[in-house]
Design a protein that fits this description.
The protein has 239 residues and is an all-alpha fold. 70% of the residues lie in helices and 0% in strands. The protein folds into 2 domains: 2-58, no CATH class; 73-223. It has helices at 2-6, 10-16, 20-26, 39-45, 50-58, 74-107, 117-144, 153-176, 188-220, 225-237. Its main location: cytoplasm. InterPro entries: Hemerythrin-like (IPR012312), RIC_family (IPR019903).
Length: 239
């Protein structure tokens, strides 16, 4: 049973195993931008036995509230992404930037202070806002009209690239904050900031996962169908 899980990609497991994303976050596995990586290879890269992670996946309790978005229409998934993630991100950043500025102002002389975090969050906000506007104004309307491959392939490729940039920004955020771990004597503002950062990271990873591994993959699926059909047709006409 664990072998079947180990040979699947992180993206497939995140879609098919309810609660898998919680396990992946626990082990710091990138299931959004790195969703094409098999669990075996991803675990080996972080020095963890893949059997350990597979066992954790098998031990997950079923959660009836988790939806399998692979069977939803593009319109349904887009509506969910807009409400759950786009609106949420726009609410998150202003308060996080305010808290980060306050922590840097008061505790900037301490070696564990995340100096530069407020500026980094501001840059993340600008990049993410630009990204979301492109989706809302260009790509999402195309997908809602049923346009997939090849019409939407260009915009999808751009969004995938920008998702990788967002992933890099999360890595920088982790480096600035000791993997979002507050010092033992952190004040309430510092702790509130890091709770918000952990929520942002979780939300953004889930956001990217649903787009890369579900919405975009479904839109690109017809690109593989003509190839299969052409192969079958060629076999039919062979003498």
């Amino acid at each position: 049973m664990t072998t079947a899980l180990i040979d699947q990609t992180l993206g497939n497991l995140a879609c098919s195993v309810p609660g898998a994303t919680r396990v992946f976050r626990q082990y710091r596995l990138d299931f959004c931008c790195g969703g094409e990586l098999p669990l075996r290879e991803a675990a080996q890269r972080i020095g963890v036995d893949p059997e350990t992670i597979a066992a954790a996946l098998l031990a997950l309790e079923p959660n009836a509230e988790e939806q399998d978005w692979r069977t939803a229409s593009a319109g349904q998934l887009i509506e969910y992404i807009l409400a759950r993630f786009h609106e949420r991100h726009r609410d998150q950043f202003p308060e996080l930037i305010r808290l980060a500025s306050r922590v840097e102002q008061v505790h900037g002389s301490r070696p564990e202070c995340p100096n530069g975090l407020a500026e980094h969050l501001w840059n993340m906000q600008q990049e993410l806002e630009s990204h979301m506007l492109k989706e809302e104004q260009i790509l999402f309307p195309m997908l809602q009209r049923g346009m997939g491959f090849p019409q939407a392939q260009g915009p999808i490729s751009v969004m995938r690239y920008e998702h990788q940039e967002h992933g890099n920004a999360l890595e920088r955020l982790a480096a600035l904050t000791d993997d979002i771990t507050p010092p033992a004597n952190a004040c309430n503002t510092w702790r509130a900031l890091y709770r918000g950062l952990e929520e942002l990271r979780s939300d953004l990873m889930q956001h990217i996962h649903l787009e890369n591994n579900v919405l975009f993959r479904n839109a690109e699926a017809p690109a593989r169908i003509p190839t299969v059909q052409a192969t079958e047709s060629a076999e039919e006409v062979r003498p």
